[in-house]
């Protein structure tokens, strides 16, 4: 599939949380509060879109008041049949977002994309809530 029509960008603000939350995840309900109190920033929350369809997303979390992200805790890829290039989409999203978000730039992709080490989800089991 032609990847030229893929848009990778951070969300513009809380008004795009509905877009960001189109992929199901137990922590989706916490995103608005995280943004409001400063544990997340729009520039740390990235989406990969084709037209208006969310194909993948990534987001970092940090402690309140921190100027740098601490943990990449959201990395979801739509692995449906209508997105046959889902692995490439995820790699491109992660590489682009890391280069823009992390002060040291991206880590080598061979390290970043090891699904066992990074916990990459393709609509697998949901992560337990932080409140549990």
Distance from N terminus to C terminus (CA atoms, Å) equals 41 Å
Instruction: Quote the average pLDDT.
Output: 81
Radius of gyration, taken over Cα atoms and rounded to an integer in Å: 14 Å
Could you tell me the strand content as a percent range?
A: 15-25%
Give, in order, the helices and strands: EHHEEEHHH
Major sheet summary line: 4 strands, antiparallel
- Biggest sheet strand order reads 1-2-3-4
Task: Note down, in words, how this protein is organized.
This protein is α+β, with helices and mostly antiparallel strands and 132 residues long. 27% of the residues lie in helices and 20% in strands. It has five helices and four strands; from the N terminus they run E-H-H-E-E-E-H-H-H. It has helices spanning 17-20, 31-37, 86-101, 109-112, 115-118; strands at 6-10, 45-50, 53-61, 71-77. A four-stranded antiparallel β-sheet has the order 1-2-3-4, covered by helices on one side. Strand 2 (45-50) and strand 3 (53-61) form a beta hairpin. The protein is globular. The model is unreliable at 109-132 (pLDDT under 50).
